[in-house]
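hiii so my PI (J.) wants the whole complex modelled not just the main chain, which honestly fair. so below is everything: two entries, each one labled with what it is. i double checked the lines twice but i was tired so who knows lol
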Amino acid sequence: MSINKVIQVEDLTKMFGDFTAVNSITFDVEKGEIFGFLGANGAGKTTAMKMLIGILSPTAGEATVAGFDVFTNAEDIKKNIGYMSQKFALYDDLTVKENITFFGGIYGLSKSKIKEKSNTLIEDLGLEKVANQLVGALPLGWKQKISFSVALLHDPKIVFLDEPTGGVDPITRRQFWEMIYKAANHGTTVFVTTHYMDEAEYCDRVSIMVNGKIEALDTPKKLKEQFNAATMNDVFLKLARG
Amino acid sequence: MSISIVNISKSYKNVKALQNISFDVKEGELFGLIGPDGAGKTTLFRILTTLLIANEGTATVAGYNVISDYKNIRNSVGYMPGRFSLYQDLTVEENLNFFATIFGTTIEENYDLIKDIYVQIEPFKNRRAGKLSGGMKQKLALSCALIHKPKVLFLDEPTTGVDPVSRKEFWEMLKRLQQKGITILVSTPYMDEAELCDRIALIQDGEILEIDTPKAIVKHYPKSIYNVRANNMYLLINSLNDYKHNHSVYPFGEFVHYTDNRTDFNPKELLVYLESKDLANIEIEETVATIEDTFMELAK
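here's the output for the full assembly
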């Protein structure tokens, strides 16, 4: 694996019976890159992502994530990545602190490390007042910010974010992206899916999946030139209608 | 008035979900309730569809009071909740038949109204609802909400988590329904959808921030707003956040939307400042505010 390629995917394919959900996709993601993974509902994004995070075994092709093979080292992948989605983020019936301790423990951090990380996280997000409150009582935007920080607790090389900002208010949505920029600036690779096309513009590079294939992959600027479109929304509408 | 809401408040324990909300929706209007998760949109929908009783205030829907005439309302409105609420173990056709029957009608009687939408899922009419894709579930739910030809249609976040192509198609469907004389109250967290409504209410933390046409709302934006771009987005955002004269700094796609707290703001000064932060290829250009800018300014 080249040092700077944190994700390498070649002809990765997943079939469910006769149905090809992911059809021979090929791409690389570099260290510190913010990589936008776009596509219509049902295009195969979730299936592709499940293979990359080591919870679904591919049918064919090759892929390494954080240096580990998705076929043979799926368990190592899980230890070396962070993951958050809108559907699964934190435990609502645990407090903020308890969630941090729980996830720190899952990722094998020492007690002192968890304590240190926990304090930094609570301070960085200004959560001192709610640290001992149940997560379920917090606004969605807060939960998502905490969830992202928790996904970074064990300093993973890559963090996978599956629609992290859906339904979040516009100000918090932007604060969330500032956190993404900060993480990327520290060298963490960010792999993100979104339905907000303005967020696609924030990515270093964007891929667009249509019916299981990657139909476009480039910087937002070049994609707009290539499709003669003013915005990423127009690019998406031109491509994804299939 | 198709919907009339007067001083409605609702609390759950310590949470004030809605605080003194009042507005009207005219007959045949496509009215948008725009706000993030937790703003109180669903609570308002549940009060208007008679599933929840407000602590204070009154409301009428299709001329009926939400308390005393609740049964008439239930016969006159269609409601598509945010969470998929059809019977997962019934097929597409069985679900539609079921809803037609409980409203004392048949699929044939109002087929005209749902035809455009239903033909898209008809090839799967023998599939169980639980096995449909997200987009197909949404179309089935809309068909079921329309099958008794309601006067008023309530759609609670019908496009959340839906990709931009399907969102566009969904709004095209709504426009066609509006032309058939149905009043539509729709909620969404996507600010770009606000522009497709006749009028909108911006809502956050249980309070209405503003109600008007989308065009009028953006005109009320109080400041000059600038598109700023440079070679390094992260450094640009940090530099603008550190700039002592900033009023607001919000990333907007490939630009940052910047407003200044001085009345005599000169963009050249900002340019000099950004150059001193080692940024290059800097562009600063005045632009027009969007609904999202307005929302953020009001919510600040």
